[in-house]
Design a protein that fits this description.
By secondary structure, the chain is α+β, with helices and mostly antiparallel strands. The chain has a single domain, classed as Beta Barrel (Lipocalin). The protein is globular and about 60 Å long.
């Protein structure tokens, strides 16, 4: 019985720590995607974390799109976003020390990388 109580307490503490860890990822993030064709595209995301669920929006000059299928696991995040009718998978890692997110973007099989930084108005 003591073992079950101890395991339950450890699990609850782990979830509380994980929630606090990812609560810092909430807010607005910005970066620039350097595409293989030489063009640069601004990246603007608003992330909302609720447990292991990631929601939010991506905003561009064309408008805003909701993130879909978003989740967080450990220090990793995953989400999809529609870009002109194309479902784009984004996967990344949150770096607490630099308060940044390394993002890998899979656009129709082309893998691109970008770094997101917390927007200045978010601090």
């Amino acid at each position: 019985m003591k073992k079950k109580i101890l395991i339950t307490a450890v699990l609850l503490c782990s979830f509380a720590i994980a929630f606090a860890y990812f609560a810092d990822m909430n807010g607005t993030w910005k970066g620039t995607l350097n595409a293989p064709d030489g063009n640069q595209y601004p990246l603007n995301y608003t992330f909302k974390i609720d447990g292991d669920k990631l929601t939010g929006q991506g905003v561009s000059q064309q408008g805003s799109e909701d993130l879909t299928q978003g989740k967080v696991q450990g220090d990793s995040l995953f989400f999809h976003i529609d870009v002109n009718g194309v479902d784009v998978l984004n996967s990344g890692k949150y770096y607490t020390a630099g308060d940044s997110i390394g993002l890998t973007i899979n656009y129709q099989g082309y893998l691109m990388h970008a770094t997101l930084n917390r927007a200045a108005d978010n601090k």
